[in-house]
Write a structure and sequence with these properties.
The structure holds 3 protein chains of 3 kinds.
Chain A lengths: L1 H15 L3 H19 L7 E7 L4 H12 L3 E7 L2 H9 L5 E5 L3 H8 L1 E8 L4 H26 L11 E8 L6 H32 L1 H6 L5 H31 L7 H25 L3 H17 L12 H8 L2 H15 L3 H25 L5
Parallel strand pairs in A: 1-2, 1-3
Antiparallel strand pairs in A: 3-4
Chain B lengths: L1 H28 L1 H21 L7 E6 L5 H12 L3 E6 L5 H7 L5 E5 L3 H8 L2 E8 L3 H22 L8 E6 L10 H31 L1 H6 L5 H30 L8 H25 L3 H19 L11 H9 L1 H14 L8 H26 L1
Parallel strand pairs in B: 1-2, 1-3
Antiparallel strand pairs in B: 3-4
Chain C lengths: L12 E12 L2 E12 L3 E6 L5 H9 L6 E6 L2 E2 L4 H7 E4 L11 H11 L4 H15 L14 H13 L5 E5 L7 H16 L3 E6 L2 H4 L4 E6 L2 E6 L1 H8 L4 H9 L7
Parallel strand pairs in C: 3-8, 3-9, 6-7, 7-8
Antiparallel strand pairs in C: 1-2, 1-4, 4-5, 9-10
Helix pairs in contact in C: 3-4, 3-5, 5-6, 8-9
The chains are: A alpha/beta, B alpha/beta, C alpha/beta.
C-alpha cells in the first residue's frame, strides 16, 4: 500500500522534470544514429604517397594497381623520401610506398626486387592494416608479373594452396552490426543504473530523503519505489532501440526477442542494484558523478563494447568478468547476429543472476534509514 | 581620485580571494571527491593505455584438420608461434564449427581440406578455409589478414625447392611508433577528457549547486561584481585541472614512455587555452539550467559522450561520414587532441598546430561572449 | 518482550529519556540527558546553535542511533523499536523537506498515504485542512512557489495529518517575521488541544514563553528544566532571554 503512494510520487516528479524525460528519449536516438556512424575502426581511404624512383612500366603498373584497389587514395607523388616524409608530417599522407631506382631491372635480371612500405603508425591499427593491405596488393601484383614472366606451364608447384576467408554472421563485416547491440545495452545501463543513483543522491542533498526516512516506510519500499519508474523507462527505451535498429539499420534479431527481454530483465535488476549501492555511499552529487564516471570507464569500456575482451591483458579480463555489461552485450550480439540456442546462454544468465543477487543484497544492507 | 580607484581595486581583490578561498574549502572538505579526482586520470591512462588495446593478439581459434599430415601440422604450428593465436579447440567435424562460434569460444575456425598434402602433391591443389566470426568485424578482418599472411609465408618456404622466381620483397618500416604501442594514441584523448570533465562538468555543477541552494542570491548581493563571483567558482577547478594535466604528463612520460617529442611550452599553452574553453563551457551550461541534475546530464551527455566518441579519441575521424565530421569539428576536444598528438607524439613544432590553436582561441572568445551575455540576462 | 510490544509508561508520560548520550568520536554532542514529557504538553528544547537540540531530537525520532542511554517514545524503545515509533510520530525538519516539484495536495497525499490514512479519507481531510489554513486557492500550486511562512505551515500540517501522538518540530519558524511566527504557534496550540504532544526545538527565546515546559541545553547537557514561569522566578529574570543568558555565560560551545 505504501508502495503505491511512493511510486506515484516518483512518477510525478520524473514526468514533471524539465530535462530528464526529453533526455531519456532524445539521447537513445542520438546514440543509436550517430554513434555507429562514428564508431569505426575500419581502415579505408588511406592517403598514399608514392615515391617512384624507377619510372618504369612495371613500377607504374604497380602504383596503378595499388590505387585501383580502393583502399588507397593517391595523395601525392613525391620525388624524394624527404618530400614524402614532409607529406606525412603535414597529415596529408598516411603511408608511403617507395620504389627503388632499379626496381624493374632488378626484378627481371636478378629475379628479386624490393619495395619499401612506410606507414605512419601513430594510429596502430591504421599502421598495421595499412601496411598489410599494401603488402598484399604487392603480393597480388607479384603473382601476376610472375605468371607473365614465366614460360607457360612453368608456374612453380605448390602454389596451389587456396586460402579463402569466410565471415560468418556478418559477411560484409558491417561495423554497425557490432556496435548497435552494444549501444542498446549501454543505454539500458545508463538509464536503469545511473539515473536512479543520481536521483537518490539528489534527494539526499536536498534533505527530502530525511522526511522519508522518518516515516514507517520500509527500506525495501523506499528503494523499489525509486527503481520502478526507471525500469519502466528502460523497458520503453529498449523497445525504441529495437525499432530504431530495424528502421535505420535493417537489423532484426536472428534469435528470439523473448530471450533478449528475459536477459534485459535480469540485467536491469543487476545494474540498478549497482546504481543503488553507489547512491548509498555518495553523499553529494559531485561524489556520485565521480564514482559513476569511474564505473562507466571500467564497466562499460572494459566490457568488450569497443575493444574485444580477448585482447586485453589478464588483469583487465578479470575486471571485465565482473561487469554485468559484458555478459549482456555478449548475449545481445549472440541473439541479434547468431541466433543462439539456450545452451550458450546459460553461463551469461547465471552470471547476471549472481550479479543481481549480490548488488541488490548489498544495496539493501547498506541503505541506512538512520545513522 | 586615483587613490580611490586603487582602494576599490584592492578591496575587490580581497573579496575575490576570500571567495576563492571559500570555494577551495568546499572542494577540499569533500575528501572522497578529491581522491577520485586525482586518481581518475591515472586510472584512465592505465585503462586506455594497457587494457583498451586495439591490437589483436591471443585470439582463440579452433582447427579442423582431417588429414593431420606434416604440412597441415606445420602450418598450425606456424600460426601459433607468435601468440597472435591460441589454439582453443581441435574440432572433429566441420559442423562443430557452428557451435564453437555460437558459444563465442573462438574468433576463427581453420578448416583444412581432406588429404591435404596428398592432394597438393599429386593434384597441385588444396584448400584452407578461414571461417571468422564476423560479429566482431575488426577482429575478424585483422585475424584473417594475419592468418593469410602467415600461411602464404609458409607457402613460400614450402617452395624451397629452388629460389622463387621473380620475387618482390616488401620491406616495412614504421614511423613514429616503433613498437606499435596503442597507448600513444589514447594519452591525448585522456587529457582532453579529464580536462573537460573537471572544467566543464564540475564547474557547471558547482555553480548550479549554489543556484539550487539559493545561496547564489546571497553571493550576488555581495559587494563583488557578479562576474567575479562566477570566476571565483572557476578558479579552484582551474588549479585542479593543472594538477591533473601535470599528473598525466608525468605518468605518460616517465611510466608509459610516451614521448614528449615537441615543444613543452606550446603543449602547456594550448592546454591553457583548452582549459579556458572548457571553463566557459561549464559557465554556459550553468546559465541554461536550474538544477545540478540538469547540469550534470547536459554536460555528461552533451559534452562527455560526444567527446569520447567523436573527437577522434577512440575512433579515427577520417572514417566518419561527413556530417559527423561537421559535428566533430565543433567539439573543442577534437582540436585539442589533434594538437596534442602532433606536439607530443609526432614532435612537430608550433607551425603545425596553428590551425588548432586559432580554432580553440576562436571558440573561447565566442563562448565567453555568449556566456556573459546570458549571464547578464539572467541577472535581470 | 517481542519487538512489537510497548512498555507501560508511568502516568501519561509519552517520552521518557534516561542518560541519553550521543558522541561523534571524542566529541560529545548530547551529554547524558534525562527528562520526561507528558501527553498533550508543549515541550520546548532551548539552546544556542550547536547545543545538541537537533541531535537529541533525531535520536528520539529514530533518525540517529544513540551512543548510550535509553529513551522511550510512545512506549517504544528508541534503540530497538524505532520503526514502531515512526508510525506514531510526526516530524518537521529544520531544512524544508517537502517536495518542491509536487503540488500542495500531492505532498499531503503522499505522506498521508505513507502514514496509513485510508485513501477515501485523504481527499476530504485535505480539503478540510486547506480550508482551515486558508490555503484552498493553493491546492494545485507547486510547493516551490509558496512563500516561506506557508511552506512552514504546510510542513507542520503534513506532520500531524495522520493524528500522531507526538510531533517533533526542529526549529520550525526560522526566517519569518514575528507575526507569521505567532500564527504558526496558533497551529501548535490547536494541535496540543487535540491531544498531540509537541516537542519543539528553538533558539528563539520568546517562543520559550509559549511552551508548557522548557529545558535549556548548554554544551550537550540539560542545565535547566521547568516551566517558563518557574524558571524566571528561579533565575530572577524578566524574560526567558535573561534566563538563558545567565545559564549560557558558562557555555563553551557556540555554533
Amino acid at each position: 500500500m505504501i508502495l503505491k503512494y511512493l511510486v506515484e510520487k516518483e512518477f510525478k516528479q520524473l514526468l514533471r522534470n524539465p530535462i530528464i524525460p526529453k533526455f531519456i528519449f532524445v539521447f537513445p536516438f542520438f546514440m543509436l544514429l550517430l554513434l555507429p556512424q562514428a564508431a569505426n575502426f575500419e581502415v579505408k581511404d588511406l592517403e598514399l604517397c608514392v615515391v617512384d624512383n624507377n619510372h618504369s612500366p612495371y613500377s607504374e603498373r604497380l602504383v596503378h594497381q595499388v590505387t585501383a584497389s580502393g583502399y588507397f587514395h593517391l595523395s601525392k607523388v613525391a620525388g624524394t623520401y624527404q618530400e614524402a616524409l614532409a607529406s606525412v608530417n603535414a597529415y596529408e599522407s598516411d603511408i608511403i610506398l617507395m620504389i627503388p631506382p632499379h626496381f624493374e631491372q632488378d626484378l627481371i635480371r636478378e629475379q628479386e626486387a624490393k619495395v619499401m612500405i612506410i606507414p605512419n603508425a601513430v594510429n596502430g591499427i591504421k599502421g598495421g592494416l595499412g601496411s598489410a593491405y599494401l603488402a598484399s596488393i604487392v603480393g597480388d601484383f607479384n603473382r601476376d608479373i610472375r605468371a607473365e614472366l614465366l614460360p607457360a606451364g612453368q608456374t612453380p608447384k605448390l602454389s596451389g594452396i587456396d586460402v579463402t576467408r569466410i565471415f560468418k554472421f556478418n559477411p560484409k563485416l558491417t561495423y554497425k552490426y557490432f556496435m548497435v547491440p552494444a549501444i542498446m545495452v549501454m543505454l539500458l545501463a545508463l538509464i536503469t543504473g545511473f539515473l536512479p543513483a543520481f536521483n537518490i543522491v539528489a534527494e539526499k542533498e536536498a534533505g527530502t530523503i530525511e522526511q522519508l526516512n522518518v516515516t514507517p516506510a520500509s527500506k525495501f519500499n523506499l528503494i523499489i519505489a525509486k527503481l520502478i519508474p526507471f525500469w519502466t523507462i528502460g523497458f520503453i527505451v529498449l523497445n525504441i532501440c529495437f525499432g530504431v535498429a530495424w528502421l535505420f539499420y535493417g537489423m532484426l534479431p536472428v534469435g528470439s526477442v523473448l530471450t533478449i527481454y528475459l536477459f534485459a530483465l535480469v540485467f536491469v535488476l543487476a545494474f540498478s542494484g549497482l546504481g543503488l549501492v553507489i547512491s548509498n555511499y555518495a553523499n553529494t552529487i559531485q561524489q556520485a558523478v565521480f564514482i559513476i564516471f569511474f564505473c562507466i570507464i571500467t564497466f562499460i569500456f572494459m566490457s568488450g563494447m569497443y575493444t574485444p575482451v580477448d585482447n586485453m591483458p589478464h588483469w583487465a579480463q578479470l575486471i571485465s568478468d565482473i561487469s554485468p555489461l559484458k555478459y549482456f552485450i555478449q548475449v545481445m550480439r549472440l541473439v541479434y547476429l547468431k541466433g543462439s540456442a539456450t545452451a550458450e546462454l546459460l553461463q551469461p544468465m547465471l552470471a547476471l543472476l549472481s550479479f543481481a543477487l549480490i548488488f541488490n543484497t548489498w544495496a539493501v544492507l547498506s541503505y541506512r534509514k538512520s545513522n | 581620485m586615483e587613490n580611490q580607484k586603487l582602494l576599490k581595486a584592492r578591496e575587490n581583490w580581497t573579496f575575490f580571494m576570500a571567495f576563492v578561498r571559500k570555494e577551495f574549502h568546499h572542494i577540499f572538505r569533500d575528501k572522497t571527491s578529491i581522491l577520485i579526482l586525482l586518481v581518475m586520470p591515472i586510472l584512465m591512462l592505465v585503462l586506455f593505455g594497457y587494457a583498451l588495446n586495439t591490437e589483436v593478439k591471443n585470439s582463440k581459434i579452433a582447427v579442423y584438420d582431417p588429414s593431420r599430415d606434416e604440412v597441415t601440422r606445420a602450418m598450425v604450428e606456424k600460426l601459433l608461434i607468435n601468440n597472435y593465436f591460441i589454439l582453443h579447440k581441435v574440432l572433429n567435424s566441420a559442423s562443430e564449427a557452428e557451435k564453437a562460434f555460437q558459444s563465442g569460444e573462438v574468433s576463427m575456425v581453420i578448416v583444412f581440406s581432406d588429404h591435404f598434402y596428398e592432394n597438393l602433391l599429386h593434384g597441385g591443389y588444396a584448400q584452407i578455409q578461414l571461417l571468422a566470426d564476423g560479429s566482431d568485424p575488426n577482429t575478424a578482418n585483422i585475424i584473417t589478414s594475419y592468418a593469410t599472411n602467415i600461411l602464404s609465408g609458409y607457402q613460400m618456404e614450402l617452395m624451397k625447392t629452388g629460389k622463387i622466381p621473380y620475387l618482390i620483397k616488401p620491406e616495412i618500416k614504421l614511423l613514429y611508433n616503433p613498437s606499435m604501442v596503442a597507448a600513444y594514441n589514447f594519452v591525448p584523448g585522456v587529457m582532453g577528457m579529464i580536462l573537460l570533465l573537471i572544467c566543464a562538468m564540475m564547474t557547471s555543477v558547482s555553480i548550479t549547486r549554489e543556484k539550487e541552494r539559493g545561496t547564489m542570491e546571497v553571493l550576488l548581493v555581495s559587494p563583488m561584481k557578479p562576474l567575479y563571483v562566477i570566476l571565483s567558482k572557476a578558479v579552484p577547478y582551474f588549479f585542479l585541472s593543472l594538477v591533473n594535466l601535470a599528473t598525466i604528463l608525468l605518468i605518460a612520460y616517465f611510466i608509459m614512455h610516451v614521448p614528449i617529442a615537441g615543444s613543452l611550452f606550446w603543449l602547456i599553452m594550448i592546454s591553457l587555452v583548452y582549459i579556458f574553453v572548457c571553463l566557459t563551457l561549464g559557465l554556459l551550461i550553468s546559465t541554461m539550467v536550474e538544477t545540478q541534475m540538469a547540469a550534470l546530464i547536459i554536460s555528461a551527455m552533451g559534452l562527455m559522450m560526444p567527446v569520447m566518441l567523436m573527437s577522434g579519441m577512440m575512433f579515427p575521424i577520417e572514417n566518419m561520414p561527413v556530417y559527423i565530421r561537421w559535428i566533430s569539428d565543433v567539439i573543442p576536444a577534437r582540436w585539442y587532441i589533434e594538437a596534442i598528438r602532433k606536439l607530443m607524439i609526432m614532435g612537430l613544432s608550433f607551425s603545425a598546430i596553428i590551425q588548432e590553436l586559432s580554432v580553440l582561441v576562436g571558440m573561447g572568445i565566442v563562448l565567453i561572449v555568449i556566456s556573459l551575455r546570458k549571464f547578464k540576462i539572467r541577472l535581470e | 518482550m517481542s519487538k512489537r510490544d510497548p512498555i507501560i509508561m508511568p502516568d501519561d508520560t509519552v517520552i521518557l529519556a534516561k542518560d541519553l548520550t550521543k558522541m561523534y568520536g571524542e566529541f560529545t554532542a548530547v551529554d547524558h540527558i534525562s527528562f520526561d514529557i507528558k501527553k498533550g504538553e508543549i515541550f520546548g528544547f532551548l539552546g544556542a546553535n550547536g547545543a545538541g537540540k537537533t541531535t537529541a531530537m533525531r535520536m528520539l525520532c529514530g533518525l540517529s542511533k544513540s551512543t548510550s542511554g535509553q529513551a522511550w517514545v510512545a512506549g517504544y524503545d528508541i534503540n530497538h523499536q524505532s520503526e514502531q515509533i515512526k508510525k506514531r510520530i510526526g516530524y518537521m525538519s529544520q531544512k524544508f523537506a517537502l517536495y518542491e516539484d509536487l503540488q500542495v495536495w500531492e505532498n499531503i497525499r503522499l505522506y498521508a498515504g505513507i502514514y496509513g490514512v485510508p485513501e477515501r479519507e485523504i481527499g476530504t481531510k485535505t480539503d478540510e485542512l486547506l480550508h482551515r489554513l486558508g490555503f484552498e486557492s493553493e491546492k494545485f500550486t507547486l510547493v516551490k512557489s509558496l512563500p516561506l511562512g506557508w511552506k512552514q505551515k504546510l510542513s507542520f500540517s503534513v506532520a500531524i495529518f495522520h493524528d500522531p501522538s507526538i510531533v517533533f518540530l526542529d526549529e520550525p519558524t526560522g526566517g519569518v517575521d514575528p507575526a507569521t511566527r505567532r500564527q504558526f504557534w496558533e497551529l501548535i496550540y490547536q494541535a496540543a488541544d487535540r491531544g498531540i504532544t509537541v516537542f519543539v526545538t528553538t533558539h528563539y527565546m520568546d517562543e520559550a514563553e509559549y511552551c508548557d515546559r522548557v529545558c535549556i541545553m548548554v554544551d550537550g547537557r540539560i542545565d535547566a528544566l521547568d516551566s517558563p514561569g518557574n524558571l524566571k522566578k528561579t533565575y530572577g529574570a524578566k524574560n526567558m532571554d535573561e534566563v538563558f543568558h545567565q545559564l549560557a555565560r558558562g557555555a563553551r560551545r557556540k555554533a
